[in-house]
Structures are given as C-alpha cells and as structure tokens.
Amino acid sequence: MNPHTIFADIVAGRAPVSTVYEDDDVLAFMDIRPFTxxxxxxxxxxQAASLAELDPAVGGKLFQVGQRLAAALRQSEVACDGVxxxxxxxxxxxxEVFHVHLHVIPRTSGDGFGLRGRPTSPRRPDLxxxxxxxxxxxxxx
Length: 141
Ligand code: 5GP
What we know:
By secondary structure, the chain is α+β, with helices and mostly antiparallel strands.
C-alpha cells in the first residue's frame, strides 16, 4: 500500500490545516468534513497506517490529547454537551485515510450523528468462547 497520505502532507506543512494542538509526537486539527461543528482529528506525526504499526506509547498519547481536547471543546464556543471518540482501523472499519487518526466529535442532542450498529444477544458460552480465543491471542503478543 502507498504509505503517502494527505495527513503526511499536513504534518510536513505541505497542505493547509487548521491546527488546535501540536507537540513533538502529535498533531490535532479540524476535520475538513466535520460530522458536527468542532469535529477534530488527532494524529501521530510519525507515519503509521494502522494500529499495528503504531508505537503503543504514541497511541496512548493520542488518547491523552483526545481527553484534553474533549475538555477544551466543552469550554469553547463549540456546541458540546458530550463527546465521542472514534477510530477506524482497517477498510472494514471504515478507515479512509491510512494514517492513524482519532476522531474527537463534539455532540449535542439531536445532532444526527450516530453509529448504525444493532446490539446482539449472544449466550454466555459464546461470550466465554470468544473471550478465551482473544485471551489466547493476547498471551502470544
Ligand atoms: P476515516 O474514515 O479514515 O476514519 O476518516 C478520515 C477523515 O479525514 C474524514 O473525517 C475526513 O473528513 C478527514 N479528511 C480527509 N482529508 C482531509 C484533509 O485534507 N484535511 C482534513 N483536515 N481532514 C481530512
């Protein structure tokens, strides 16, 4: 896969961006097609197409910065009664830009944003079976 993305251009200063936060590892800026006004993206400065490629320490920092941004959104002029974090990892998850990014989405009631998922009702043995499978995979990593 071509590792070049528009976010690499943004990090390099080659593309226009409305920045709200920057440090050595992380950049946060306004999404160009916001789901709601004030929708932000937090990205690592280092190129990482997927979570598997991202240093977990930098991944943790994305969340830390996301927390600060959530607090800032609530105190800013953005209409914000709640916040959703969203991260798409992989095509099947809806990822379109292959440079890891955390969406920080300010919410107000009736803003129209939402996940289109319907909860299911698996039996306990099925939950336990998959829990065992995931635990096994964790122990191998
Ligand atoms: P994904 O579907 O990969 O989770 O989300 C990609 C996000 O990047 C979308 O919300 C889209 O609006 C945003 N985006 C795509 N291109 C640009 C751009 O050039 N600048 C900014 N600020 N956001 C972008």
